[in-house]
Amino acid sequence: ELGWELYHKRQDTAALYAAIMEAGQEFGIDNFGAYAMNSLRLEKAFRGWGAE
């Protein structure tokens, strides 16, 4: 699975978030939390660096 880190100016955060959410509507994009991401990581057997 692909992932990205986005570097941007702080003042552009709200506009960037809105653009990503709008572009992802057709794919069912939604917000998720850190606990959900950690659960998915465990299911895939990805290590948590510094924790395991």
From TrEMBL:
Q: Which Gene3D superfamilies match?
A: Probable tRNA modification gtpase trme, domain 1
Q: Where is the GCVT N-terminal domain?
A: 1-52
InterPro entries reported in the protein's UniProt record:
GcvT/YgfZ/DmdA (IPR028896), GCVT_N (IPR006222), TrmE/GcvT-like (IPR027266)
Query: Which N-terminal stretch is annotated as signal sequence?
Result: none
Pfam families from the xrefs?
GCV_T
- Report one GO cellular component: mitochondrion
The name this protein carries in UniProt is: GCVT N-terminal domain-containing protein
